[in-house]
Structures are given as structure tokens and as C-alpha cells.
Amino acid sequence: MAFKIIVLAKQVPDTNEIKIDPVKKTLIREGVPSILNHDDANALEEALKIKDMFDDVHITVVTMGPPQAKDMLAECLAMGADDGVLVSDRAVGGSDTWATSNALAAAIHKIGKFDLLFAGRQAIDGDTAQVGPQCAEKLGVPQVTYVTEFKIEKNMKDITVKRALEDGYELISIQTPCMLTAIKELNTPRYMSIGGIFDVKNKTINVWNAKDIEVDLATVGLDASPTNVFRSFTPAPKGKGVMIEADTEKEAADKLLINLKAKHVI
Amino acid sequence: MAIKVIKDKCKGCKLCIKACPFDAIDMDGKLAVINEKCTACNQCIAACPFDAIEKTEDNKVVDLSAYKHVWVYAEQRNGKLMNVALELIGEGYRLAREISEDTKVCAVLVGDEIKGLADECYAYGADSVYLLEDPLLKNFTTDAYTKVMVDAINEYKPEIVLLGATHIGRDLAPRVAARLNTGLTADCTRLDVRVSSYIDYANKNTTLDTSSLDPNDPSTGIKQTRPAFGGNLMATIICPKTRPQMSTVRPGVMQRREKVEGAKGELVNVKVAISESDIKTKIIEIVKSAKELVSLTDADIICSGGRGLGDPSGFKVIKEFADKVGGVVGSSRAAVDAGWIDHSHQVGQTGTTVKPKIYFACGISGAIQHLAGMQTSDIIVAINKDADAPIFEVADFGIVGDLYKVIPQIIKEWDSAEDLFEASLK
């Protein structure tokens, strides 16, 4: 019986590349690349390390999104995952984290029994860190988030992880099946290999709609989501201040200090 | 709720496509069509010059009146309250009073032998303290804390539950919200219940057009504002259909109240039902970090370095600068990603949100995701070689120059600031 790992991943816009139109105050999305979310790459890498170390490990990458998210799944397969599942359906569009986790949990249920569910801590477009834990809740498995170190015993059951806290860390033992979320410190994701890219065409990406995953339609999509967007807007720029004109560094420093003093902040 | 294109009005100008942050609009010939990526964020409605896009509201009326009071998860570690707990009691107090006179702010203490913390909660504004004590709750575990929080929420039915967006709060909150089948909004930086307060906030601090909002609207559903897209977009999220309304809130953003020594409140001992078999994880040990504790959120002055430092040794200069001015060292994500400094120093959307009296941005270009974490600082000073760097757009004072020459001068002149100021008045 293979050791089954499911990795949750998301295709996200590279938020570092997004700029605001200075006049219209809207997002400029043109030319912004879609990428595999960083933390998810760490989750996949850890799964791949398990596969490197032990025989008979099977990795399925699961995502939800528009049809083009297949590209990201192909990237995951080229890194070494065995197969991919894309949940894509207008009916699940606009889902918040609660509704998203209902859809993903239904997809995972369809895939069948798993030993380890690995997700990234959070996606860089939403930054919520909620979907991983909420899937774990729907699937009834325990979780550890913010994992920075991972070790599994030869029995493929007992896991020890290091969980980052703001002021230190915890060492936690947990048993499969369980859900873990990865952060950057866990590992360095590998690149796709040439052979890996070549192999993608022999691997399967299943695209499932809401009917395929047999999810209750009253629990997915925009209308079912308990949270809704009320308003959205671009943050107001603070407004340009004073540029300090000076001929020498000393003059600049002096002028700055005078200004700070005048503002009573020093 | 959904976004709809009014076919007769759409002229196919594609302005909505440009405005959409989610790539959720396609063209079908000369007609805009909303696809499944739509989150009903409303950006397209404002962008459409022909009023061809509308939001369809559903008018389901749900009785939510059984839920009352504002709960704050008063996170404690090792018998000590986290700063964010006190900040949230302050914020919860403000919200409770805005909802109604008889709405209380309640601190929820979960742990073992932590009754002593109740007085501190009262002193910072809590009307009541709900105490959930058990030896099995001594340290945080997702399983145990989720179970007792869910049980308590089901029993007492709070209207709002706030948690700090700490590593623990962000682990616990999604699990609790999922089990209660209610909404949760992550990492909020602003909360409102009154529409009038929201309008005031929006007019003062945002680009939002508030003309469609009614300041006399009596509803008190929570409006949770948070950054998304790495701080490129702000979204206000509501939770209209389910209760409680849950939020995690960024540490360092909300204001704690003035401490009132000896303040008293009502103590509620909550019965907890928890057994060892409920807890599937086992804590082997908890290690406090030996490395320098970076308390960016409490710092009055932050000296931050970015990629403009050129190499990791630049942080020596930044450290010297911080030591001189009594500040703490911060950094941009670029410097962290380059491996020049530990992530604990990172300021920004994926790092820490800070609000010091003075923020020195040295060699930081000012990526949106960085600005999201520091632009509410009282005074921002930017030092950068590149006069076009976006950081200057938010800086109160900007110096275009070589930071390796400018900073040593500031260090040198720091103690004579008073004299320089006096001299400048003459």
C-alpha cells in the first residue's frame, strides 16, 4: 500500500510584480506572471523529499482554480509529483476559505484515503492561511501549521515536526493521517528537471467539476460563502513629503535632524 | 450576491477588464462576461463608464439576534498575556460600545491556572472574563483549544469573536470557524460596526467613494478591512449570514486602552469538557528563541535596511544607527530573501506591521508589500540613491544620497539635534 501524500497548491499572481496605476488607482495586472505559490512549493518539496527517501510514495497535487491552473500542476509534476487534480467549475467560483475548503475536501475525499496532507502556510494573493486548517477540519484530521522541520519514522506513521512561534519554536509529535502547513524555512524547493518536464506528458492531470467531486452545491461558491466582499479599494498613498536638498551629507543630516526636532519626534 | 453585466448597456469598452484584480472578466464579442474567478469585489462597477455592471444583493433575512457581545480571545503563553490580547480588548471595547450600551467586551482566557490574568483584562477594559481552565489546556494545542472554544461559543453565542493574528491565533481561528460553519476574515487592520464610523475611516484614509453608503444605516454587522494582493488592494469583508462573525487581527495595529488599576468585572467560569484522547498532537518541548528578540511592534524608532545596502555587511551600519537612536533593526523582504538578515526583522505584508514614531527606510525601494507594513508610521524618513524610488512617495522626509555616507553623518550629529534646531530658529 503506497504512502499517499496530497499536496494542496495554488496558482497565484506574483504580487511583487503588481503595480498601481498612479492616475486611476487601479491594479495593473498586465504582464504579471502566474506562479506556484511559494509556501506551496515548500510543501511539495517536503513531499518529494519523502518520496526520495522511501519506496512506494505517491504524491497527488490538488488545486482549485481556472483552467489555466493546469500549467501550475504541470510544473508540480515536472518537479516530481505523480499526478494532479484541478477542481474547476463556475459553481465553485468566488468561494471564500470556508467554501473553498468544502470543495477541496470533497475532491480529496474522491481521491481516497491519504496519509499526509501537506499545504503551504498561506497564498500570497490572499494571505489568509485558512484553507489548509479548514480542509483538515472538514476531513477530520489533526494539524500542525508553520512547520520548519519535518521527520518521519520508518514505520511511516510517527512524525516529529518543529513548529515556528514568534518567539521560538515547539517540537510536536503527530501521527498520520494529518495535515501540515509549510513555511519557507522548511526547505529549498527544487527546480523542474529536464527529465521531469519530459515525463509530464506521461502523467495525469484530472480536471474535475463540482459534479465530479460530489460536493453539496449549497456549500460552495460565492453565494454559499459566509464572508463577502463589502467594498474594495486601493490604499491611499500617504502623500509625498519634503525632499531634503543639500550639497553635502552633513548638511542633509543636519537638515533632517532639525526637521525631526521641529516635529517633536526626537 | 453576484456581479451582473447589463447586456443592453455594455459597450464592450473593456475598461472593466483592466480594473478587475482577479482576471474575472472575459469578452464575448462586444459583451463583458463575468467568469468564475469573480469575488464580487466591486472594482468593475466603479470602472464602468456606462453603469453597465451591477451587484445583485440577496435579501435573505436571518435571525441573528440570539448572538450578543464581543469576545476577545485573550491569548496567553506561559501565563503571560500577549500584547495583542490587550490591543484587542481595547478594540473590542470600542466596537461593543458602538453596537449598543449593553453590549459587553469579554476576554476569553484559555489555559491552566491563569485566573490571575483576569484582573489585567479588566484593567484594560474587559467587562467580563470567561475562564476556560484545565490541566490539558496548559499549552496551546489545536485540538484542545478548538474544542473548548467551539463549545463555549455554542453555549454563550457571542456576536463577534476576535483573535490575534499570531502563529497560534491563525492556527486556531480557521479550525474554530470551520467547525462552527461561520465566516472568518484573516489579518484585519481595521474593524467597524457602525456604517458612519466606516465612512469616517474611509474618507480619511482611503480612496473609496463612500457616496453610496448611508451614514444613518442602523446595521451593526462587522466590516473587516484587510490588505490583499500583497497590500496592493484593500478589501472590506462582511459576514452577513452566519454568527459569530470572526476575525483575526494583526498585532500592533489596534490601540489598547489606558490601564485602570483595580478595575473589576464579571468572572464566568466556563465548564470545559476535554480529555486526553481529544488531543492528537503531543508537545515534546517548547523552546524560547535564544536569538535576539526583535520587538518591531513595540519599537518607537525602526531603522530598516533593504537591497540598497548592497551586501549583508550593510546591516552593521543599520545596527549602529539603531543603537545610536535607540531603535530596532528592520528590513525589507528583499534583504531577507537575499539571506542578509533573519525573517524576524522583516517589515511588510508578509512580515510584521509596524507603526513606530520614526521609520528610517535605508536603501529600501518601497515595494507595495513593504509599504503595507509601515506606511502608518508617524514619520517616515527615506534614504535612497534612486530619486525615483517609490519609497519617496510615502516619505515625510527624503534624502537622495549614498546611505553609507548619510547615515554616519546622522549618527554623528544625532546628539546635537537640539542645538542644530535652536540654531536654525535664529
Q: Could you explain the architecture of this structure?
A:
The complex is a heterodimer of chains A (266) and B (426). With 266 residues, chain A is an alpha/beta fold. Chain A is 28% helix and 29% strand. Chain A is globular and about 75 Å long. The model of chain A has no long low-confidence stretch (mean pLDDT 93). With 426 residues, chain B is an alpha/beta fold. Chain B has 13 helices and 22 strands. Chain B has helices spanning 15-19, 43-47, 83-99, 118-123, 142-156, 169-180, 195-205, 314-325, 333-337, 368-374, 391-394, 403-413, 417-425; strands at residues 2-5, 25-28, 31-34, 53-56, 70-73, 76-77, 80-81, 105-111, 128-133, 160-164, 184-188, 190-192, 223-228, 233-238, 245-249, 266-269, 282-288, 301-305, 328-331, 358-362, 379-384, 397-400. In chain B, helix 5 (142-156) crosses helix 6. Chain B starts with a strand and ends with a helix. Chains A and B meet through strand 3, helix 3, helix 4, strand 9 and strand 10 of A and helix 6, strand 11, strand 13, strand 14 and strand 17 of B. Strand 14 (228-233) of chain A pairs antiparallel with strand 14 of chain B.
Summarize this entry quickly.
The complex is a heterodimer of chains A (266) and B (426). Helix content of chain A is 28%, strand content 29%.
The total number of structural domains of chain A is 2
Radius of gyration of chain B: 24 Å
What CATH calls the topology of the largest domain in chain B is Rossmann fold
What does the main sheet of chain B amount to?
Answer: 7 strands, parallel
Overall mean pLDDT of chain B: 92
Side-by-side strand order of the widest sheet of chain B: 11-15-10-5-8-9-16
Widest sheet, order of strands of chain A? 11-10-9-12-8-1-6-7-13
The termini of chain B sit apart by 64 Å
Q: Return the CATH class of the largest domain in chain B.
A: Alpha Beta
